[in-house]
Amino acid sequence: MPSLPLDFASLADKRIALWGWGREGRAAYNALRTRMPQQALTLFCSDAEAADAAAFGDALLAIEHEVSGEHLAAFDIVVKSPGISPNKPEALFATERGTRFIGGTALWFGEHANDGTMARTLCVTGTKGKSTTSSLLAHLLRAAGLRTALAGNIGLPLLELIDETADAWAVELSSYQTRDVAVSSARPAVAIVTNLFPEHLDWHGSEARYIEDKLALVTEARPHIAVLNAADPRLAALQLPDSEIRWYGDARGWHLRGDALHRGDAFVMDTASLPLPGRHNRSNLCAVLTALEAFGLDAMVLAPHAATFQPLPNRLQPMGTRDGYLYVNDSISTTPHATLAALELYRDRPVAVLVGGHDRGLPWDEFTEAMRTQAPRAIVTMGQNGPRIHALLEPIAAAAGFSLQPADDLAEAMDKARAALPEGGVILLSPGAPSFGSYKDYVARGRHFAQLAGFDPEAISGIAGMGIA
Predict the structure, then answer these.
(1) 317-453 sits in which CATH class?
(2) Is there a smaller number of Cβ atoms within 10 Å at the N or the C end of the chain?
(3) What is the pLDDT of residues 7-22, one digit of tens each?
(4) How far apart are CA 407 and CA 77, in angstroms?
(5) How many helices, marked H, and strands, marked E, lie in the chain?
(6) Largest distance between two CA atoms of the chain
(7) Where in the chain are all domains bearing CATH 3.90.190.20?
(8) Residue limits of CATH 3.40.1190.10 in the chain
């Protein structure tokens, strides 16, 4: 779909509603109310959220508890929270009748696009690695002396920074937000895509639509330079006539040879000691260095500053040793591919991995096949899709030589993991599934894991570097 101008001025004569009252929804409300103080707004939210919204005392804010296609169709624009799918039946009903659904991300980009070009903005997406990549990008931009904003899906809505300025913007985008950039009329200076695996199929409706929505950042938003992973077959097949493509993971650019970081044939440094656990995270460094070059900076000079990067919580996070076991928190793992990557990091140690959570219908067949030859010491299944994973693994467990145990919850899973391991083993939370149902989000799941293991949840859950510095 073609990009259309989208900023706050374009909303002046429109009937506007908000859908969702999480942090993104509140950021959208505050931005709209600041710029349009006399604008009547309607909020669609849950009963639990309504009391918080009513506390604002805004006479021009109507609060609705019931969301239907007919209600949504009464508005020209609905600013929805990212987690609300535009493929919900009520949203599709309203769309057919002319309602336009956007996110706060679209408003931020539309407001800052000016002539369409966003020369200071570097966007990051991908199924896995986008948060680490965004944070590492911001870290190295700051090492270059640039006042840098780190925001977006990483946990800080862009609209909370609507009036701020920066020399560079490192913006993480989920697949829920990439199309917002495409419809905003903005062209980012640089856009990174790290990889593509099936995910969020319940939100997007199908794997094909997920890929299409994810890639909208480069296929429809038309960044000036697209930084793509040459090792990903879907990305390697892309042709982007409106963007220059710069590849990483390719022998001609930034790539790894074992643990050795190279720029073409030139050796740059050894990465084994960097605070980037796992080869996939060191591959993210290659993406960042390629993006820095695309942004006009000397990546060779900046590369050593990766040694001072502070790793993100819930991402292959070694929390420490208790009673002879190393506890590793990879709660952000929401696909089987992510669990396989986590297991690869600890393949030389006895490991019990805790898998399972909310069932989005993702296939676990590839994971099961890998367990025939690459299994850890023990696998404990839990959560909504735990029984389905258990049923796939049970026929191969004995022959593959791993212990397989079901658990009703995380606490029981950890007890069974400890019982299956010798002293010196690794208890790895890498669920390969979302946390919904049992926990508010993956952060809450990681905090509970830390608490059960005897660590301070507060000490392990903070993300450094968000905001502008």
Answers:
(1) alpha beta
(2) N
(3) 898 998 999 999 999 9
(4) 46
(5) 18, 21
(6) 70
(7) 317-453
(8) 107-311
